């Protein structure tokens, strides 16, 4: 995954999946990426976009929101959702972080992130659009019994109408599942 600059050029991100394929920052319905935050900076603003951020690793961030609200994003794998048009200032806490980001165009869809700490076995919901292994290993098994092993950093994007597999996580694994419901 090539690194690309943030919209405001204050950091870098790696796109994991975008819908529809080939869309850009002005036309996506939803987008998932992993960002590296190495220094204090303002987040890019995205009008009409709902954003959810999850700390993957690092000491975390303090997110300064309008109205003096402060949200500590210091626990890994705890999703935090906010409106993309808000002016958000991130303060790095003790070193660089890596963050998982979901952006959803509010007029077109809603989205959420489920965090599965494992070992666990489950059938993915029909609206699961992406799986990302944050830590450890996981195994996907489709309806025909075909298996796919995933390791930390791997992701799988699911298309509309595609059958969702069964997920089995290994010991100490953490898997993020992005759920999208189009309007």
UniProtKB/TrEMBL annotation:
InterPro entries: RmlC-like_jellyroll (IPR014710), RmlC_Cupin_sf (IPR011051), Uncharacterised_HutD/Ves (IPR010282)
Residue stretches spanning the membrane: none
Domain of life according to the entry: Bacteria
CDD domains, A to Z: cupin_HutD_N (cd20293)
Pfam families: HutD
PANTHER family for this protein: PROTEIN VES
Protein name in the entry: HutD family protein
Record lineage: Bacteria, Pseudomonadati, Pseudomonadota, Gammaproteobacteria, Pseudomonadales
């Amino acid at each position: 995954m090539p690194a690309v600059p943030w919209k405001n050029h204050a950091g870098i991100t790696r796109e994991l999946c975008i819908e529809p394929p080939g869309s850009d920052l002005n036309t996506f319905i939803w987008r998932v990426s992993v960002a590296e935050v190495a220094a204090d900076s303002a987040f890019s603003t995205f009008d009409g976009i709902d954003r959810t951020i999850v700390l993957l690793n690092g000491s975390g961030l303090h997110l300064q929101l309008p109205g003096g609200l402060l949200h500590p994003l210091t626990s890994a794998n705890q999703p935090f959702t906010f409106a993309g048009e808000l002016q958000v200032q991130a303060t790095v806490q003790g070193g660089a972080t890596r963050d998982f980001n979901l952006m959803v165009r509010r007029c077109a869809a809603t989205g959420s992130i489920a965090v599965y700490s494992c070992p666990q076995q489950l059938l993915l919901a029909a609206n699961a659009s992406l799986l990302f292994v944050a830590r450890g290993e996981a195994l996907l098994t489709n309806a025909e019994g075909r298996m796919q092993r995933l390791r930390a950093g791997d992701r799988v994007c699911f298309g509309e109408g595609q059958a969702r597999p069964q997920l089995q996580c290994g010991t100490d694994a953490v898997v993020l599942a992005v759920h999208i419901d189009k309007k």
